[in-house]
Design a protein that fits this description.
heterodimer; A: mainly beta; B: about 300 residues; 2 domains; 7 strands
Chain lengths: ~375, ~300
């Protein structure tokens, strides 16, 4: 079924793409092409492939992530203005389901948002919520090949990506200050449904709320400081409220002169969450998880980056959590804006466990279609 | 007392808007457009640029502080032709200012209005590098097109601020006439320099070269956006030798050391880093200064 559905999606895409790419019929530049292109959504496709070997991974091809060759994820995105008031985006992801070698299509994001209101954007649909910075990224935009340990433990592999409504307003200050309020249907299996998703209420009347405050300061022309704080609460399957709060800090340096060749990013993100009703290993009725990830990215030439990440899962320290320390090193080569190759090594130590895990991974990241407008 | 302090602190952080009422607030994407807007708008306009004169305008980062500037803008003036496609859409969306959305009077792209060259026809593919299907976007490097751009900007400023429309039109025509007159002088000087062919790093100077009838038979980039390879540099060296090209101009945001191999092989060839935007070098503060700077580079002064 999933294969047929995927084919239908692709068949629907092809005519749009073909029209958008049609060359003018004569050799003279006319305004035909821009006009035709303007009537169709911008279409782009991205896919991530992996070659990896990890001591913590199996060789079972039905249990991703596994050793060997795999497609990490592929996405197709459509974006367009709807009318003078709204813009819409639809992003379909194709990924391998656990327990099978089949790929299934999923609606990763689909939403509309306002474009004609001063200083505020309303959004409705399904989208990645503004819990910290990393949760808002798609897999192809991750600073490293994988998401931080704490994010995966608290929010699952797909992150907090819910059916939601959102309001994001600029505050009238002399620096960039934005407040984001979001209400959503709490369906994240990791945060709200616990280990047994078929147990408990799935009441569609349950509601979650999220608030994020983001501030960005230009320390000088070359250096910015971003500070964010966010928190969310939502009803879980046990009838209690799961909650996560966190903070993030990012310095970005790119010199005005020579900025094509050098840049530096320092980023740190802390998340702490609790799932009341979900017993932890020490028998406490509330499972508490927290941790921090800190990373540095340095661009040392036009197409090369070198990066390092340090993670600590299990903060604050709790005997109920198998705390983990992880170190990751990455070197990335980007032939153009549309392709990249990254090699990453991970060292993972679970405190109290014998030995440690090592992972080597080579990832390719390829995009075709509309030129992406990069976020900061 | 404590409450009063926090109230005053909060009020001081809120942006003072008194000056904004008096003048049109214009944000230009690049410094060349800022210089033209400043001259056309005169005392009735305040204008800032997002990109600096030392930055490659293709690759500006979409900083939220730029969104804040656009949030308060009456008009955004951009080149268009996909020059700013990697960052301006994000900045405009983040600005949440409906007046400056594309299609609104507060959003002006000047590139498509001044007859761009190198418009691609037929199959467009990124196998040719980071191409611009709608034409070469470096239109402000032609002094006569810069004059035309001034007129287009004046028309838009007049539409937004009808009370000063005649001032804007007058200022634009003054600038246009001055650039036309000056172009004749620059043309004479370039002719006298004897330089007929120049190698550049990127196709940034296409309009300048065409205006002054200078050939640009080789580019150091093998394809747009792709850094020079040693094999391509060897081909360029061969071309310089056979066509007797006397000069290499490297745009100031590219790495000038790539010309070292050429200079080692051909010491008689002159290589110079040049500003290709206002503020790109000391003393290049007006649009005329930019052309003067380039003419001097060709003259070897």
């Amino acid at each position: 079924m999933s294969l047929h559905r995927n084919l239908l999606v692709l068949l629907a895409i092809i005519p749009l793409t073909a029209i958008a790419e049609s060359p003018p019929t004569d050799g003279v530049a006319t305004d035909t092409k821009p006009r035709v292109k303007g009537l169709n959504p911008d279409v782009s496709a991205n896919f991530l492939g992996l070659i990896q070997h990890g001591t913590g991974f199996s060789n079972n091809r039905t249990a991703p992530p596994y050793n060997g060759l795999s497609i990490q994820e592929s996405e197709i995105q459509f974006t367009s203005d709807v009318d003078p008031y709204l813009r819409a985006s639809a992003l379909f992801a194709f990924g391998q389901e656990s327990g099978t070698t089949e790929f299934t299509a999923g609606m990763e994001e689909i939403y509309f948002e306002t474009i004609a209101l001063p200083s505020i954007t309303f959004r409705a649909g399904k989208f990645k919520l503004s819990l910290g910075k990393h949760n808002q990224l798609h897999a192809h935009g991750f600073p490293f090949i994988d998401a931080p340990l704490t994010h995966r433990a608290l929010l699952g592999d797909e992150g907090l990506n819910e059916t939601a409504i959102s309001a994001a307003a600029l505050l009238p200050f002399s620096w960039y200050s934005e407040i984001i309020l979001q209400g959503y249907s709490p369906s994240n299996e990791t945060l709200f449904l616990g280990a047994a998703p078929d147990v408990g209420s799935r009441n569609s009347g349950d509601f979650g709320g999220l608030v994020r405050l983001k501030n960005l300061f230009d320390l000088n022309d070359d250096l910015t400081l971003e500070i964010g704080a966010s928190g969310t609460r939502g009803q879980n399957q046990f009838g209690f409220r799961s909650q996560v709060y966190g903070g993030d800090l990012t310095f970005k340096w790119r010199p005005s002169e020579g900025g094509k060749y050098h840049a530096l990013v320092f980023s740190s993100e802390y998340l702490n969450g609790r799932r009341p009703g979900s017993k932890d290993s020490a028998g406490d009725e509330t499972e508490k998880l927290g941790g921090v990830a800190t990373w540095v990215q340095y661009q040392f030439s036009q197409r090369w980056w070198i990066q390092w990440r340090n993670e600590r899962f299990g903060l604050p320290r709790s005997p109920a959590i198998a705390a983990q320390n992880k170190q990751s090193g990455l070197i990335g080569f980007f032939p153009s804006e549309f392709s990249g190759f990254r090699f990453q090594y991970d060292y993972l130590k679970t405190l109290g466990a014998a030995g440690s895990d090592h992972t080597f991974a080579l990832q390719y990241n390829v995009s075709i279609g509309a030129h992406p407008a990069h976020t900061y | 007392m404590k409450t009063k302090f926090w109230f005053l602190f909060a009020m001081s952080a809120i942006v003072p808007a008194s000056d904004a009422f008096a003048k049109l607030n214009v944000i230009a994407t690049v410094t060349d457009l800022r210089a033209i807007v400043a001259e056309v708008g005169g005392e009735f306009v305040s204008v800032e640029s997002i990109a600096k004169g030392t930055q490659d305008p293709h690759y500006i980062e979409a900083k939220p502080s730029f969104m804040l500037k656009l949030n308060r803008a009456d008009l955004v003036v951009a080149i268009g032709l996909d020059l700013e496609i990697g960052w301006l859409p994000s900045v405009v969306r983040g600005a949440r200012n409906p007046r400056i959305n594309p299609g609104q009077p507060g959003f002006l792209e000047v590139g498509p209005l001044v007859n761009p060259v190198d418009v691609l026809t037929g199959k467009v593919t990124r196998a040719e590098g980071d191409v611009h299907p709608f034409g070469n976007p470096h239109v402000t490097l032609d002094p006569l097109r810069a004059g035309e751009i001034a007129v287009k900007i004046a028309e838009r400023l007049g539409q937004l601020d009808p009370g000063h429309a005649s001032d804007y039109a007058k200022n634009a025509h003054t600038l246009k006439s001055r650039l036309e007159a000056q172009t004749k002088i620059w043309k004479t000087r370039i002719d006298q320099s004897g330089v007929k062919k120049v190698v550049s790093y990127h196709k940034t100077l296409t309009y300048f070269f065409q205006r002054f009838q200078i050939e640009n038979p080789a580019i150091l980039e093998p394809k747009p956006g792709i850094p020079p390879t040693s094999g391509h540099i060897l081909e360029v060296i061969q071309l310089i030798r056979t066509q007797r090209i006397p000069l290499i101009l490297v745009e100031n945001y590219f790495d000038p050391t790539v010309t070292k191999k050429v200079r080692d092989e051909l010491p008689a060839v002159r290589s110079q880093t040049v500003a290709v935007a206002v503020d790109g070098a000391p003393g290049v503060v007006k649009i005329d200064d930019l052309y003067e700077h380039l003419v001097k580079a060709i003259e070897g002064k």
